[in-house]
């Protein structure tokens, strides 16, 4: 999958995307990330990218010209173009799964109060919000979306089952709690069931725990 990101802050994308699993996905050629610095398309000698909103209002918006010019230049016969904005549809695992099937994603990360809406009208296939809160920088949201999508590309996770057995996997519930060694630490013991070696009972225990945890933390999912 080719992932291209348009941002004013390339390092906010490139560093996380070459770290850990995202870096390995690229080393294995399962994903390629290209970062485009919007400042390169800025206007005049100050490379201006933003301006005040028509009709008044707070803050600055990204002007259309730099984004149009950048998008003109990107080769994109079959790309899906996504704009990251708190005004978008809320991102979830089903959306990550859908996007993971694309060959080519172009992510536009906003800044300031957003972008001139003509960019959305002319170019954007979907607007995505990563949650009901506002970040200063859409590049962070782009990294969240890319991480969630890239890890679903077959071969990226060592064990493809781990993408199924996790929270928001096929059960629609949160995951059961997990424990590792030592079996006792500072008087805190791992539940006996997990040490029993009885796989059938452990699976049942985990299903009960998953339900209990979901009831407590995410009653909206039950
Ligand atoms: N930019 C600022 N806040 C955002 C959010 N919640 N989701 C996506 N992009 C954003």
In summary, what is this structure?
This protein has 222 residues and is α/β, with parallel strands linked by helices.
Features:
222 residues; alpha/beta; Alpha/beta knot; Trp Operon Repressor, Chain A; five-stranded parallel beta sheet; two-stranded antiparallel sheet; 8 helices; 9 strands; binds adenine
Describe this structure in words.
The structure is a single chain. The protein is α/β, with parallel strands linked by helices. It has two domains: 2-150, SPOUT methyltransferase, trefoil knot domain (Alpha/beta knot); 166-221, tRNA(m1g37)methyltransferase, domain 2 (Trp Operon Repressor, Chain A, Orthogonal Bundle). It has eight helices and nine strands. It has helices spanning 10-17, 20-27, 64-73, 93-99, 117-123, 138-150, 192-195, 199-217; strands at residues 2-7, 32-37, 50-51, 61-62, 80-90, 104-109, 126-129, 184-185, 188-189. The strands form three sheets. Strands 2-1-6-5-7 form a five-stranded parallel beta sheet, covered by helices on one side. A two-stranded antiparallel sheet has the order 3-4. Helix 1 packs parallel to helix 6 and helix 3 packs parallel to helix 5 (117-123). The longest helix is centred in the C-terminal third of the chain and has 19 residues, at 199-217. It is elongated and about 70 Å long. The mean pLDDT is 95. The structure holds adenine (ADE). The site of adenine has 12 residues, from strand 5 and helix 6.
